Task: structure prediction
Amino acid sequence: MSSMKILFLSNLYPPYVVGGYEMLACDVAQALRMRGHKIWVATGQGKAFEERDEVRGVFGLDLDRKEETVLGGEKSILHTFSRHLFNLHNYLETWRLLESLKPDLVSVWSLYLLSISPLTAIRGKGVPCVVHLCDRWLLYYTKKIRSLFDPPGWAISQTLTLVENLLQPILYRTSLPPVLVVPSLALRDEYLAHGFPAEIFVRLPHGIPVSQFPFQRQADRSDPIRLLYVGQLWEGKGPQILLQALGLLAREHRVPFHLDIYGDGVAHFKRYLGQLIDHEGLGANVAFCGTVPRHDLPAIYQSHDIFIFPSIWFEPFALAVLEAMCSGMAIVATSSGGTAEAIRDGDTGLLVPPGDVHALAAAILRLTEDADLRQRLGARAAQVARESYDFDNYVGQIDQLYHRIGTVQE
Result:
């Protein structure tokens, strides 16, 4: 296939990372560059990008103050308009990049906090575009802005009603891209339920570099069972539910276990988790390990027995679950969103309802007491991950899609 000029847009980009969305965007950009394509990336502003010509920190988002600007932030109407509806600066920067770089295609990842204005500029310039959706941000921008308020007061609610009835239909018509790539049917169905046309969706489950996550399970060690959580520390990912479930196990079943928590989050939520650990009497059973380089993760997966994914928000298709599967771990996960499309209950792991402390505790107890079940689920998960979620195949399908949608300029 011929070489293309591709502009990637993403609110975050490594080394500024919150979750798997921006890491996947980076991995795909690098893989396409290795395939001979010319790749540029436009993202938020950060000092780390000053010496990188291929990454343009142009959008109005201060990534050096990531905790405040990305993970926190106010919920005023003015803030909502500029961050989630239309931002003139981001519109003009996108237009300028399209004028100067003349890409064959724009690959859009998360625009959360950048507003929909980059898509409006792309549509206005008539440049081919593919949007990779890994959550609901486009739904918030074009249909349900009130979902970003929890809950809105009366005055704000009335304003949001006007925005949803008058402004958002215009943004939807002037910004909707021709192709939306989703990793799961669950995420696609969320958008279909709000009136998005079915014909613009392409389902493409995420991929991981399977060779980097070998299935070399160590023999079960002596007690305690080693449990693992890998992910962002915020309420939607459910670490608080996991700690409550483990407190239940410690009190009622006296199961010997140790939980390692890998990930980071805002300071106030980490303090809350620390208080919850003390409240549940888990101080000797839980360790916060912080964030680690990605190349350390395979060894971490190998050194634990059970991977727990207690998410209570609408999970699109989590990379950490795929990595744990590929590593042959026994997995307990909630059935939220697209997770149930990767984890089949009783086949590649155990599924429990989101937010159900007792069900989560029961599933963990079941695996701690049954080494044969852990081995069977882990082996099957590794087989499925290698057959279905290989990163090279994933990038190959993206490459084919981009050639089909884009127009290579001679």
